[in-house]
Amino acid sequence: MFVSLVVMEKTRQAIKKTDLKSLTKTGLSEYLASLGLKSYRSDQVFQWLYQKGAASFDEMTNLSKQLRSELQDIADIRTASEFSRQESIDGTVKFLFKLDDPGEFKVEAVLIPDFSDDGTANRITVCVSSQVGCMFGCSFCATGKMGYFRSLTHGEIVDQVYAINRLSEERYGKKITNIVYMGMGEPLHNYKAVMESVRILSDPMGLDIAQRRITVSTVGLARQIKQMAEENLGVNLAISLHAADDEKRNNIMPINESLNLETLEEAVRYYYYKTDKPLTYEYLLFDEFNDTEQDAKNLVKIARWVPSKVNIIMYNNVAGVTLKRVREDRLNRFMKILVKHSVTATVRRSRGDDIDAGCGQLAIREGSERGKSIA
Ligand code: SF4
Questions:
Q1: At what angle do helices 222-229 and 191-202 cross, to 10 degrees?
Q2: pLDDT at residue 364, as a whole number
C-alpha cells in the first residue's frame, strides 16, 4: 500500500517535494496517513522534527531504512540553520539564520539571558523573527528599512527557537523559559505560521514551553487581533504603541493612517472581552518626541482601555534615524506621571546594544540592498 502510494506521490511530486515543516501538525498526520502510514508514525515524525530537531530522514532511527529512503524521495525537511552569531558583553547573543530556499534569505533572532545575583540565568528569553524584512516601514526600525521579502514558515520560526535552545542547554544547563515574537517582521501579518509555531513550541511533544510564557507582538492589526482572540491560546499579546495620539503615531508608524487608535481601541476591547487577559503596551520613548507631559497623559488614557501594563523601552539609536533615546531626566518625569495615575509601568533597559541586537535594531546589513546577507 505504502509503496504504490509513494509511486503515485513521486509522480505528483516530480517537480516539487513536500516540505514536512511547512505542514501543520494535523497536516503532517494527514499527509503521512495519505501515504498509508499508521497514526503512531505521525507522532514519531513530529517528535523527530520538533523535539529532537532532526534535519534529515537518516536521523529518524525508529523508522525503517526503507521508509526513510521512501520519504527522502518525496519529502524534504527545510531547515533554517545557524549562519553566524555575535555575543554581547551583557550575555545577549544575536544569531543570523540562513533560510533553506533559493532566495538565500537570512533572519536574525536573539537570546537574552537574565541573571540572578549569584550569576544563574533564571529567565532565558528568545526573540524570534517571523518575516524576512517588513512592509510596515516604522520610521525608527532598521527592519522596516529593508523592505519586505517574504514570510517565514512555522518551521523556520520554530527552528530559530530550537537552535537557540541548544545553546541555552549547553551554556546554562536548562531550556529557554520565554519566547517573544518581536524580531524581524510583523507577526500578525504572518498570522497562520505564527499561530502554528506557537502550537508546536508549546506542544508536549515539542519544546513544551507554557503558552503563558510566549508573547506575540503587533503594531495593531485590528482584524488579526480579533482573530487571535478566538484562538483559545494562552499566549500574551503586546501592542507596539510607541505614540499615544494619532498625529504622532502617523508620523512614525504609517500603519496608523489606515488603522488608527480608535480602531486599535475597538480591537483591544474585543480581545479583552473575549480572553479576559490583560495586555502589554510597548512604548519606545524618544527624546523630545513622545516624552512630554501630554504624551504621558494620553498614554494613561490608553492604558485604561482594558487592564494592561506598559513597558517603557529605552531605544537603541539606529543609524540614519533622527529619533533618539530619551534623556534620563525626561524619562523620570514621564514615569512619575504614569505612576501617579496608577499605570503599571516598567522601564526596559536595552540589551545587546554593542551587537545591534536591541529593539528596533534587527536588520541584515551586509549586502542588504535586497535584504539578503552576503556575510
Ligand atoms: S517595528 Fe515591527 S512592524 Fe514596524 S517596521 Fe519594524 S518590524 Fe515592521
A1: 30
A2: 55
CATH 1.10.150.530-classified regions of the chain: 2-76
Average pLDDT over residues 200-208: 93
Based on the residue annotation, tell me whether 134 is a catalytic residue of this protein: no
Q: Give per-residue pLDDT as tens, 60-115.
A: 999 999 999 999 999 999 989 999 999 999 899 999 999 988 878 999 999 999 99
- Domain 2-76 top-level CATH class: mainly alpha
Fold of the CATH domain 81-370? TIM Barrel (3.20.20)
pLDDT confidence of residue 186: 97
Shortest CA distance to 359 belongs to which of 210, 189, 207, 140? 140
* Separation of CA 48 and ligand 1 centre (Å): 33
Q: Is 83 exposed, middle or buried (0-12, 13-18, 19+ CB in 10 A)?
A: middle
Contacts of residue 212, Cβ cutoff 8 Å, sequence gap at least 6: 234, 235, 236
To test the ligand 1 pocket, which listed residue (128, 132, 143, 256) has its Cβ within 8 A of the most ligand atoms? 143
CA-proximal residue: ligand 1, atom 3 (nearest): 186
133: which strand partners?
Answer: 148
Choose the catalytic residue: 108, 156, 196, 282. 108
pLDDT in tens, 143-199: 888 899 999 999 999 999 999 999 999 999 999 999 999 999 999 999 999 999 999
Q: Indicate where the chain has its CATH 3.20.20.70 domain(s).
A: 81-370
| 255 CA → ligand 1 middle, Å | 10
